Amino acid sequence: MSEYDHERIEIKWQRKWEEARCFRTPNHSEKKKFYNLVMFPYPSGTLHVGHVKNYVLGDVLARYKRMRGYNVLNPMGYDAFGLPAENAAIENKTHPAKWTYHNVDIIRNQLKRLGMSYDWEREIYTCKEEYYKWTQWLFLKLYENGLAYKKKAAANWCPHCKTVLANEQVVNGKCERCGTPVTIIQLDQWFFKITEYAERLLNDLDKLPGWPERVRTMQKNWIGRSVGAEVDFPIKGLEKKIRIFTTRPDTLWGVTFMALAPESPLVSELVTEERKSEVSAFLEKVQSEDRFKRTSANGPKEGIFIGRYAINPVNGDEIPIYVANYVLMEYGTGAIMAVPGHDQRDFDFAKAYDLPIKIVISPSNGRDSLDDAPLTAYGTMINSGEFSGLSGKEAIDAVIDHLEKKGIGKRSVNYKLRDWLISRQRYWGAPIPVVYCPKCGIVPVPENELPVRLPENVDFSEKGASPLPKIKEFVETQCPRCGETAIREVDTMDTFIDSSWYYLRYINPHIEDKPFDINDVNEWLPVDQYIGGVEHAILHLMYSRFITKVLYDLGYVNFEEPFENLFTQGMIYYKGAKMSKSKGNVISPDDLIARYGADSVRMYLLFIGPPENDAEWNDSGFEGVHRFILRIWRLYDEYIPGLKNLNTKCLSVENLSGDEKNLYVKLNRITKKITEDIERGFHFNTAISGLMELLNEVYGYVQRKEEASKDFVLLKFILERFVTLIYPFAPHLGEELWELLGNDPFLADKSWPGYDENVLISERYTLPITINGKVRDKIEVDRNISEEEIKRLTLERKRIKKWIERKRVEKIIVVKEKIVNIVVK
RNA sequence: GCCGAGGUGGCGGAAUUGGCAGACGCGUUGGACUCAAAAUUCAAUGGAUCUUAAGGUUCGUGUGGGUUCAAGUCCCACCCUCGGCACCA
């Protein structure tokens, strides 16, 4: 009896696959393409089992699709630029590149040791010149087309990371990476005009039925479209107007004051002389407050009258103008009309400052007092002149038409989405390819001068600050336009730009004169299956969609959405928390692979539960799966010597009966189940339980049967099928047993087995009989039996008679092949 | 507050179209093997309850209603957990 030497087996097959280049994917093939993509890792250290789950899911699908005859593209690379590398470099007095490449080597080895079927010849690193050259090219394309611009603006600054962040990278007022509360600073920054694509990013979500509803909803929320009107309010005694945005033009008659954002330039323009000192004191106070708290819900409403009045353009009311802390400068016009009768915030403010409350929407549900809450629901307009009596959408449309006709307002759409701030005051990223010339101003670096190289000899001794501005050779340059001395941009690009197009580079990873070949990309994209964590629901996934749409508009690709199907896998928890180095609860795959083998790790990560759910790592659960693998090994080890030379072609299925027939039926049933579990969408946990069932069945057979009466040809046939079925999940074990059974490699090149539907339909089956819905008996019947016959047989049963005697049988429901139900009273 | 997902044995989880709830695994218990233990292997395993036993009965999928011959699955109301958004006018 031989031991299951997982290490020998796994390394043997990993080597063989590599030598035979089993997983190399030609760009063109007779076969149908399948682009299988797993979100590439940020190489911050070693992978733990939580990361590994992601890659295992992708690998199972890739291997399965390959067996189904697809030309599968299954690439891997590294999202290799980023701040952690720089921080580590500062801490360990090394270079970010060195740290990054070191980590990449570890991760690559981990992935190889796990048996991932990647086409390693397509490996990409976003930090390599040959890659970031094209990231810079992408920037130029956006710049040329007016989609990249520079402006001075309030930006989120992370004091710990010492850089600005995009809105998407601020979570609850804190830096998404390090958790430090962000502050606001004014800086000259580069932006991508993602807002110009807001409508399409929103609408095209409907074209993505293969995405989880959850992710689409999150993006919808983030884009935050609202429809309404812009209205101009004249100011009493001045030739000025305040423009506001509202989604409720039907409440225009209920405006009792106006409010400006503290940052609004209108404040200083409009404030009267007498109110100036009080107002600026208020502004100072607001500025000193925590911005996140100030702009989050339930904060106290504060403000101050600026001494000026506006005129309500629809009814001529004079209304006071306030500055209020709850009005945001970044949304709409930075000014609002306040309708305390029908808006919670305005209501709170009005209560706090004793402002009048007017009711202009009729309280439909019997409420007539607004003492404690405003009436925010839609309803019938009242006290609104000629518009009184209108309600709902009709009312809103009528009011807007009126505004447009009178020239005091117009239909308008607003989004919560802001432009993508892409400048980072860091070293380890792709330099923004722009030069500042005293004569010509902003000058983009010409395409043929790319890449703008990141200088390598860099001093990281000054803690925290980017070293780029201090490198003379980098900063000082000539203007590409006029040749005069000029200064280079010293900010680098947000690393989310690197990852917003990497799925295109995999198609032609080594091409030198362009980022990708248009024809090849159009052939391979969109990605058929994208797999990754839900934490990228907004960030990476929306940026990638945006960049794809830009490339589409510029004619570089012929598809508008990059990822046809998206699967978001759940996280692995350990000791009740997300695995993380800082919490000290990571489980490394390395030790497990050394002790139990990669196949056990793969199988457990698949068996742990539905892959989209979060799951708690459980050591004894893992051992259970490992036991299953040992159990497979023992069975094969015992029977292979006797089976090796048998020819399964001799198997005649028609002549099977009894135990053998049952076993054969089971094989077909399980084959069907596993196939459907995979096809139906990542139900790998139940697929594996099917394999367990099948193995139990085989064990039952070989133990029950006398040695002499066993059908060894059938046994061999089943054992061959079994390893084929387990191959996508435990590929090393599959290949090894396949070979030991006397077959030539590679199982990797074999087809996924079919199944015989006909044998699944048996001539006889068991039919449960229920009385008033409770199972009381079962009968075995012929497939072709008539309903009448079933009824007759049912009523003859001793057990059934017992239940229906002295009762009245109301009716008998027979659902063939399902159930019989007798209704008695 | 709004939106989304979910709630099933001691535990992880199955149940695909309304048709035998609890597949598979873990754990537990018992038998075999062994000097013994481990490993392995076979069997039992939702709760309550009746019976000497074989075998019954009854309750049971977050709670309360409803539809149906039949509900984990459909409808209504509610409770709880998780995730997202949250002064966005």
Task: Describe the overall structure.
This protein is of the alpha+beta class and 825 residues long. The protein has five domains: 29-125 and 521-583, Rossmann fold (3-Layer(aba) Sandwich), CATH 3.40.50; 136-193 and 419-496, no CATH class; 226-414, Valyl/Leucyl/Isoleucyl-tRNA synthetase, editing domain (Isoleucyl-tRNA Synthetase, domain 2), CATH 3.90.740; 618-760, Orthogonal Bundle (Isoleucyl-tRNA Synthetase, Domain 1); 764-824, Ubiquitin-like (UB roll) (Roll), CATH 3.10.20. Helices cover 37% and strands 19% of the residues. It has a four-stranded parallel β-sheet with strand order 2-1-24-25, covered by helices on one side. A four-stranded antiparallel β-sheet has the order 6-5-9-17. Strand 19 (434-437) and strand 20 (441-444) form a beta hairpin. Helix 2 (49-67) packs across helix 19 (598-607). The protein is globular and about 110 Å long. The two termini are 64 Å apart. 40% of the residues are buried. The model has no long low-confidence stretch (mean pLDDT 90). It binds one RNA strand of 89 nucleotides through helix 7, strand 11, strand 15, helix 11 and strand 28.
